[in-house]
């Protein structure tokens, strides 16, 4: 028997394992390696995703690929996590899911519908088990750490998830930094142009450049429509194949490194799993689907559906439309990464501090701030004419958008937990379902509508969502008797009781 462990009594099947105090450092090692591996993995994924609508713009290939990812993610979240984790275990589920993302990166070497769409579907199907396995692993580690140190498990799990998301949020920074650094570097074609053709520039060439600048202000932004040709906006010209291949190679190396980090640097969950069964509720896919549908009968669930869909829609708009119609069209594809770095940094910082702010101000003022700010951003995008002369504006809009996105994610996620205690599986499955639905719908109509129409639809969805959210807050504030409102009492629910509560209608 390992010297680090000892049994409390002779029954090895029922006895808990007691860890040496030094085990806490090994637990922290596992947390840090998992966080680092996810940072590597999503450095590649987010870096490639943010370029799709601009680099693979022909026939809207990139946008349809993103739609395929989120479409399959809906089914994956419902049917696959429990099955895959039972089959492989938590650690190897993470490794396999990482590998499932690899074809998406490899397809960038040869982007066609028959390579990109299947690869996108694979990413979505791998996403459900991946995130469920990650949550399960960190939760089990937090329980073991609490036994070693005596710190409460609720405090420990919050600390571990905070460290994890600190790593995860930085993936936006590194992924976009890699893409912009490569795309903005001067290639052979540019050098050849500067050496051989600058002496032959005529007055007509200068006139055409100024016309292109003028056209960019007229065509980009809210006026941008699918099918805008490269000849009209030179900024939309795709990067050279060699640069795309360089970026793809770097991203591929990141994903392989992530798989190796988990495979060789992370302990099996069996080391810390002391009789803990399943990945949470142990509910099968079909049964979870039935619970999700039953949850829709709850009036609160209906009221917060629009704002949940808005979260997915605004994220999809930023990834597919803001990057192409504003940044790429108005400033250039090579600058997408720099602008999205600003979004990622502001999103991460806001996610960390928003909880502390809410303790001081309460939930409603923060949500009102996000609502006002997001309405102002959408209106600004409707009237703003993006151009290279307004570089700072790109960063301000992306940063404020990231700030708002962080508020919506934190507040609506926590609201689901507050409104539906003891029914977390159904509640958070509905959150993932309708958030992904908002993203899929936005990606699907993206190739067919102009930006002003998309912004108008986004604004309408935000207003409807805000009305539903306000209705929930008003009902809670009035404290009506019965199912809606009233004082809520929160308590820990045993797994058997939780499973039973899921079967009872509201």
Automatic annotation (TrEMBL):
Biological-process GO terms, alphabetical: regulation of muscle contraction; regulation of potassium ion transport
Membrane-spanning parts: 31-49, 61-85, 92-110, 116-133, 145-168, 244-266, 286-311, 331-354, 366-384, 390-410, 455-472
Subcellular compartments: Membrane
Membrane topology listed for this record: Multi-pass membrane protein
GO CC aspect terms: plasma membrane; striated muscle dense body
GO molecular function terms noted in the UniProt entry: potassium channel regulator activity
First-listed, main subcellular location of the protein, grouped into a coarse class: membrane
Pfam families in the cross-refs: UNC-93 (PF05978)
Keyword terms of this UniProt record: Membrane, Transmembrane, Transmembrane helix
Family: Belongs to the unc-93 family.
Name of the protein described by the UniProt record: UNC93-like protein
Protein source organism: Dendroctonus ponderosae (Mountain pine beetle)
């Amino acid at each position: 028997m390992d010297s680090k462990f000892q049994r409390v009594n002779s029954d090895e099947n029922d006895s808990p394992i007691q860890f040496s105090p030094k085990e806490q450092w090994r637990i922290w090692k596992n947390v840090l390696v998992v966080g680092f591996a996810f940072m590597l993995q999503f450095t590649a994924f987010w870096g490639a995703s943010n370029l799709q609508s601009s680099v693979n713009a022909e026939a809207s290939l990139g946008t349809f690929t993103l739609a395929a990812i989120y479409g399959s993610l809906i089914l994956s979240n419902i049917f696959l996590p429990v099955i895959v984790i039972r089959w492989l275990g938590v650690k190897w589920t993470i490794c396999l899911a990482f590998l499932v993302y690899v074809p998406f990166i490899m397809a960038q070497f040869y982007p066609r519908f028959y390579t990109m769409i299947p690869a996108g579907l694979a990413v979505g199907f791998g996403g459900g088990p991946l995130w469920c396995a990650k949550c399960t692993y960190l939760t089990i580690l937090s329980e073991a750490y609490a036994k070693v140190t005596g710190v409460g498990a609720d405090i420990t799990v919050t600390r571990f998830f905070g460290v994890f998301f600190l790593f995860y949020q930085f993936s936006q920074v590194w992924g976009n930094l890699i893409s912009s650094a490569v795309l903005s570097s001067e290639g052979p074609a540019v050098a050849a142009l500067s050496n051989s053709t600058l002496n032959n520039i005529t007055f007509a060439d200068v006139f055409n450049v100024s016309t292109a600048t003028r056209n960019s202000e007229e065509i980009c932004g809210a006026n941008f429509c699918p099918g805008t040709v490269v000849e009209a906006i030179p900024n939309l010209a795709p990067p050279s194949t060699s640069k795309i291949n360089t970026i793809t190679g770097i991203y591929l190396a990141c994903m392989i490194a992530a798989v190796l980090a988990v495979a060789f640097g992370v302990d099996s969950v069996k080391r810390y799993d002391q009789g803990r069964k399943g990945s949470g509720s142990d509910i099968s896919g079909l049964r979870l689907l039935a619970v999700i549908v039953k949850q829709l009968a709850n009036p609160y669930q209906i009221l917060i559906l629009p704002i949940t869909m808005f979260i997915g829609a605004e994220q999809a708009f930023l990834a597919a439309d803001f990057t192409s119609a504003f940044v790429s069209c108005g400033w250039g594809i090579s600058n997408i990464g720099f602008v999205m770095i600003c979004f990622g940094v502001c999103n991460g910082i806001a996610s960390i501090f928003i909880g502390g702010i809410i303790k001081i101000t309460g939930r409603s003022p923060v949500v009102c701030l996000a609502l006002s700010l997001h309405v102002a951003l959408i209106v600004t995008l409707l009237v703003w004419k993006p151009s290279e002369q307004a570089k700072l504006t790109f960063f301000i809009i992306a940063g404020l958008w990231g700030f708002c996105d962080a508020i919506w994610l934190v507040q609506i996620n926590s609201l689901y937990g507050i409104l539906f205690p003891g029914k977390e599986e159904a509640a958070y499955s509905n959150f993932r379902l309708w958030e992904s639905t908002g993203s899929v719908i936005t990606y699907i109509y993206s190739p067919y509508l102009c930006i002003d129409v998309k912004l108008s639809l986004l604004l309408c969805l935000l207003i409807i969502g805000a009305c539903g959210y306000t209705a929930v807050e008003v009902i809670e504030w009035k404290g009506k008797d019965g199912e809606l409102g009233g004082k809520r009492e929160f308590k820990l629910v045993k797994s058997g009781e939780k499973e039973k509560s899921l079967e009872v209608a509201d």
